[in-house]
């Protein structure tokens, strides 16, 4: 054991890049919501891109290190204090036994990634460490949890000067989308409205789905249950738009009008209630 | 049986969707399962996962698809192949269900609304040989076809906040087993003592699309015996191989 959770924060979990090959069992992919930030975090501590990291949401945890390790925080903005010293994002730092890290709050975006050299060696279920109940015991870390960490490989000096985190790309309201399987069922007016309108994120937004606040009248009908993916935009007959995220179910019965690009899923993962978004259609490249 | 060409389209950067006419039909299911096998055989070197629903196949690639249009033409070729003489090796399963009033919370409602005695309901529910179409909604939740129309019943007006793991229910034209505790709006008629999804197993569920499933009524006493057997690890799920 080498990290202890003193306070869990609002919603803190361990995530890697998700469960592959088990969608046929109805198991959600899960995994980090913002893959781009998580990859950068891993690279900065000398990991491969895909190690398990800690995903911190809005209000961070307090943790005690029980071993020497190299840590980094990646996100758009957060207040982090190691013992009494303020820590900057994107700058790896070494910690010693007994050091306490407090993530006070996330000041920009809503998700922050904490990566550790060697990665988290937490509960592995169906090929992934991503926390998702009932595949793992819990969906989020609890006060008192202990986490295993791989041995710190100090000799492996990292040159991370070349790693550039493009934080500015999160400032856009535009989400690039491909037309979804049921896009052609929309009338021309609806197609136009869906692309010209500024939407805002409702209070129902989670790792499973982001529901948009504005309703759009339509005459679509439910469809027979079909495959869906993270990034699928469902349009319900009642007029709600739901953007499925990493913990989404594997099948659904609402028309799938758009599919977000992988990059847009990452951008959306940093947005919260009240934030504006606008869909921008991107055709598939020839 | 002959099927028209499917619509082939990308679903994001890492998946391709093949969809046929929207219908729930056993022949179409088995046709999709032959195709699924062919696609998996073709892609042995690239890691892909193929999942089916009633009328679609989704091919999920492990990374970005380099050239989507060349994948489309590969899939078009596979889809237009002739599957005559091919066989699928499938299983016929039997799952025990206890329809005792302790578990059959809505048996009285189903009995009243469908004007059938409780024993008739149990008889109708256990006589069908259900087809497993696919898994979705919850990890391990089986979409079954073949419910006797005399048992069709609308969902509860307000869903229960907690339906017990193993609960067997009916909602509209479907029946199924809840793989875990969950909120749910189906009418509950019994409980299956055998876990249908277990994350501790490398294969968390034995059931595959195309497999057949029968329910067998067991007494409360037998239900408890099976629970004990499962705990001790000496319960054997009834199954036999069949070819399609």
From TrEMBL, chain A:
<dbReference type="InterPro" id="IPR003778">
    <property type="entry name" value="CT_A_B"/>
</dbReference>
<keyword id="KW-0547">Nucleotide-binding</keyword>
<dbReference type="Pfam" id="PF02626">
    <property type="entry name" value="CT_A_B"/>
</dbReference>
<protein>
    <submittedName>
        <fullName>Biotin-dependent carboxyltransferase family protein</fullName>
    </submittedName>
</protein>
<keyword id="KW-0378">Hydrolase</keyword>
<keyword id="KW-0067">ATP-binding</keyword>
<dbReference type="InterPro" id="IPR052708">
    <property type="entry name" value="PxpC"/>
</dbReference>
<feature type="domain" description="Carboxyltransferase">
    <location>
        <begin position="24"/>
        <end position="286"/>
    </location>
</feature>
From TrEMBL, chain B:
<dbReference type="Pfam" id="PF02682">
    <property type="entry name" value="CT_C_D"/>
</dbReference>
<dbReference type="InterPro" id="IPR010016">
    <property type="entry name" value="PxpB"/>
</dbReference>
<dbReference type="InterPro" id="IPR003833">
    <property type="entry name" value="CT_C_D"/>
</dbReference>
<protein>
    <submittedName>
        <fullName>5-oxoprolinase subunit PxpB</fullName>
        <ecNumber>3.5.2.9</ecNumber>
    </submittedName>
</protein>
<keyword id="KW-0378">Hydrolase</keyword>
<feature type="domain" description="Carboxyltransferase">
    <location>
        <begin position="6"/>
        <end position="207"/>
    </location>
</feature>
<dbReference type="GO" id="GO:0017168">
    <property type="term" value="F:5-oxoprolinase (ATP-hydrolyzing) activity"/>
</dbReference>
């Amino acid at each position: 054991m080498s990290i202890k959770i003193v306070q869990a924060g609002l919603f803190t979990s361990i995530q890697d890049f998700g469960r592959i090959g088990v969608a046929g069992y109805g198991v959600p992919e899960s995994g980090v919501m913002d893959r781009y930030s998580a990859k950068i975090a891993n690279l900065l501590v000398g990991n491969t891109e895909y190690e398990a990291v800690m995903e911190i949401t809005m209000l961070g945890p307090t943790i005690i290190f029980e071993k020497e390790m190299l840590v980094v925080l990646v996100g758009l903005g957060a207040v982090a204090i190691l013992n009494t010293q303020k820590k900057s994002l994107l700058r790896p730092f070494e910690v010693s036994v007994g050091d306490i890290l407090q993530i006070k709050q996330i000041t920009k975006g809503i998700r922050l990634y904490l990566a550790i050299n060697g990665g988290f060696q937490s509960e592995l279920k169906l090929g992934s460490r991503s926390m998702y109940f009932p595949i793992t015991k819990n969906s989020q870390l609890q006060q008192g949890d202990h986490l295993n960490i791989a041995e710190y490989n100090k000799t492996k000096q990292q040159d991370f000067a070349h790693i550039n985190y493009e934080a500015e790309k999160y400032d856009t309201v535009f989400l690039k989308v491909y037309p979804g399987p049921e896009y052609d069922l929309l009338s021309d007016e609806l197609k136009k409205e869906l692309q010209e309108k500024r939407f805002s994120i409702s209070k129902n937004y989670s790792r499973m789905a982001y529901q948009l606040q504005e309703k759009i009248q339509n005459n679509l009908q439910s469809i027979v249950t079909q495959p869906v993916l993270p990034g699928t935009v469902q349009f319900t007959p009642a007029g709600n738009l739901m953007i499925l995220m990493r913990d989404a179910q594997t099948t659904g019965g609402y028309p799938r009008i758009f599919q977000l690009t992988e990059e847009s899923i990452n951008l959306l993962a940093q947005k919260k209630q009240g934030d504006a978004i606008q869909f921008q259609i991107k055709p598939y490249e020839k | 049986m002959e099927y028209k060409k499917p619509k082939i389209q990308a679903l994001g950067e890492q998946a391709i969707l093949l969809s046929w006419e929207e219908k729930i039909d056993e022949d179409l299911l088995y046709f999709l399962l032959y195709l699924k096998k062919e696609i998996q055989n073709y892609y042995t070197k690239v890691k892909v996962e193929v999942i089916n629903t009633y009328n679609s196949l989704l091919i999920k690639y492990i990374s970005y698809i380099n050239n989507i249009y060349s994948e489309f033409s590969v899939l078009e070729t596979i889809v237009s192949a002739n599957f005559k003489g091919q066989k699928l090796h499938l299983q016929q399963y039997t799952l025990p269900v206890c329809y005792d009033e302790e578990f059959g919370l809505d048996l009285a409602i189903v009995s009243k609304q469908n004007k059938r005695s409780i024993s008739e309901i149990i008889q109708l529910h256990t006589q069908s040989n259900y087809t497993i179409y696919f898994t979705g909604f919850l990890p391990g939740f089986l979409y079954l076809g073949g419910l006797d129309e005399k048992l069709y019943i609308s969902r509860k007006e307000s869903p229960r906040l907690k339906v017990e793991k193993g609960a067997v229910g009916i909602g509209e034209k479907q029946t199924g087993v809840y793989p875990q505790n969950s909120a749910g709006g189906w009418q509950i008629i019994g409980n299956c003592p055998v876990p249908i999804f277990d994350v501790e197993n490398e294969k968390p569920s034995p059931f595959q699309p195309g497999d057949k499933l029968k329910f067998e009524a067991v007494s409360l006493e037998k239900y408890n015996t099976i629970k004990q057997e499962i705990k001790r690890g000496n319960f054997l799920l009834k199954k036999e191989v069949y070819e399609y």
